Amino acid sequence: ESKSIVADKKIRTVCTYCGAGCNLEVSVKDGKLRSIQAPWDSKVNPGHLCLKGRYAFSFYDHPDRIRTPLIKKNGAFVEVTWDEAGDFIVSEIDRIIKENSPDHIAGISSSRCPNEENYLMQKFMRAVIGTNNIDNCARVCHAPTALGMQRTFGTGAATNSIEDIKYTDCILVFGANPTDAHPVTGAKIKQAAMKDTTLIVIDPRRTELARYAHYHLQLKPGTNVALMNLFFYYIIKESLVDVSFIEQRTEGFEEFKQHVLSLNIDELESITGVDRHLVCNAAIAYASAENAMSFHGLGATENSQGTSTVMMIANLAMMTGNIGRPGVGVNPLRGQNNVQGAADMGCQPNQGAGYLDVTDDKVHALYEEFYGARLPRHIGYKIPEMYEAALQDKLKAMWIIGENVVQTDSNSRMVVKALDKLDLLVVQELFMTETAEHATVILPAASFLEKEGTFTNGERRVQRVNKVVEPLPGTKPDGQIITEIMQHMGYPQPDYTAHGVLNEIAQIVPFFKGITRENLGESGLQWPVNDGGIDTPILHEETFKRGRGAFYNQTYKETSELQEHSKDYPFIVTTNRGLEHHNSGAMTRRTPNEQLITEDVLLIHPDDAKEYSIKSGDMVCVESPRGKTDIKARISTAVKKGILSTTFHFSEIMINNLTSDVCDSDTLCPEYKVIAARIRKSRGK
Ligand code: SF4
């Protein structure tokens, strides 16, 4: 007798794989997830999901899920109870604080976790441990966006909504490949370009989206600042600046203009490797469009001049008056589903919940009163500084939630050395990742499908995450784990409910003031949300958060990676993401997507391949000053001669053994996009 396949219930929640924040309608039968569809009434993704959102969910009950706490004893993990794990962690934390200080402990929160859990993690570190050593993975992706947009506009978040693609005449995609990394957004951009919207793509690779572009500026990796100055030069020379917007809303333009006009355009053209006439035509297209909007990704931020690049993207919008109305603005394509939220909730070492400066006396007093605890007022370690501190014995313990830093952070070997120096490494995880293997204690966490809360997508839309299935036996939601440890350490945190924590957040985060779980409804609300529950789809309509928008002069500086190493390592490797997999693959490699793409490959230009006698499918040894790996070659004209490109999803390749310690000087966001390298044909592993 055949069993009915009709679902017992359908539950709406939000995708965990990228900052587009697509809504999912999940069918559940007999307590198990059966399928995922796109709701037609979604504001974000009516009727549309990508390969990851629709199909890559079977990781949630995969046999590899960790289902009991583990403590490492004599080099091997031993199963323990939650009480034993809690006692051990708390006694180790007490010891480290007594023997050293609270600043010898640091935490990395997870931007895949809901706001409520991120809020609790930073509260735990600040109010219970007593340190500002808390960060999240925005450090290694969009920290330059947050800082660059705060400096120029006053707010480090997208100015508009993805829906505004409908109202724009020109789209600039800068250092992003949304077709693979934010597919639902990428499809909207592609559809617009196929109609009558002008598309400009700035990218060292000829991505699929670049094939739809009217202008593809295929610059040399790491030369964003030079390219943007060339772009500005032509807008000023062609008198396409918006004089009245500049006069009424901004400051610093005259000095900025003089700086741009003083630059040597022959030099800029040669640095970028892009024909000046193409840049000129693209600049004219952007500046003369009635409404132009930009989307930028990690190609803009993960460079030694990442913050400068973002400030230039913001300045481009300001100089052409493309701010404060539908169809314009500066719109970072946030990577993780809740990376906007992790920073909003205060998981960063200089700003607490709501971006309030932890060193400011008034803010400090406000937080102390609200948390009922003495708090540190000096800025804590950023993620790269945590590793450095661990290597120098200035850090004794780390607590990492849902981040596989060994595979995804730059210069992996250094990361491993740092983690192995610690007395205590607590990891909350679903699986035995490359990072979890180095843990002292592993706490089995629940996935997004097993928990409640809210995610904030890349357009500041706070949306409800609903529990689809019960947590697997033995696992707990991250928020519950942190709450129980806080209580174990004597802090009077109420028992965990996502609802209760959201109410607490609304009391301390000014732009969450009018948010309740109920009024978020199915479509969510875009912060800031006022007392009356009215949200804000467009920022900076009348004025900027900082008052006047600020222009800054920027000058191109070649990265030290190339200055020091390009003689011996003549190629540049640039890394990126693929459609089928998510970051380190911990989730997607445990779904049928694993069968679609089974390895990272290295793109090599045909001229380079010929010179080194390499054919597609050959194994190649690619080597940087930090390390080397063997990887399969794919001959491709998507990259220019001298440029190599690969994804970083497979731990078997571990491309981050090659990436460097060079960072954006303002935010310490690592430079994943420019790696000096050399290649040779190899026999493989
Ligand atoms: Fe999920 Fe992003 Fe795909 Fe939407 S575009 S389904 S949020 S991975």
Automatic annotation (TrEMBL):
GO biological process: ATP synthesis coupled electron transport; formate metabolic process
Any one GO molecular function term: 2 iron, 2 sulfur cluster binding
KW Oxidoreductase (keyword) present: yes
Keyword line: 2Fe-2S, 4Fe-4S, Iron, Iron-sulfur, Metal-binding, Oxidoreductase, Repeat
Coiled-coil region(s): none
Cofactor(s) of this protein: [2Fe-2S] cluster; [4Fe-4S] cluster
Stretches assigned to the 4Fe-4S Mo/W bis-MGD-type domain: 8-64
GO cellular component: membrane
Family per record: In the C-terminal section; belongs to the prokaryotic molybdopterin-containing oxidoreductase family.
Protein name per the record: Formate dehydrogenase subunit alpha
The species this protein was found in: Methanolobus halotolerans
Residues of the full protein shown: 220 to 904 of 909
